[in-house]
Amino acid sequence: MRVGIGYDAHPFVKGRPLVLGGVNIDFEKGLAGHSDADVLVHAIIDALLGASVLGNIGHFFPSTDEYKDVSSLKLLEKTAQMISRAGYKIVNIDSVIILELPRLENHWQDMKKAIGNVLSLDESLISIKAKTTEKMGFTGRGEGIAAMATVLLDEG
Q: Torsion angle of alpha carbons 51, 54, 55, 59, nearest 10°?
């Protein structure tokens, strides 16, 4: 068994859609980034790469034209293929999105479904939570969103 931890953060920017967990969220701002800036999926990718000791997200998916505005779900799919080729299967994912706004309670199932579909993982093995920082720090001031993820891999 192997455990991996991932983290990502992006600032808010006007004029972009907000994508979290592969789902478009109705909000006045999106996240700045080279891809779609999906902090949740990026944290999961880094956790998967860390647990499998393959590297980090920037190594495999650099800020090149190939990945400009790409869906992070496509990056997750490529990561899942790398994990499988390395001889691992995903046991479960636990994650947290750190933000003040928007509220996400109506989006959990869609996020779990999107991530589960890409990973061929039952939604019951994916945990997604949201926490505020009680108005402290960049997320508390509404400047952006962060996410953390932990994954458990087994030899598969």
A: -140
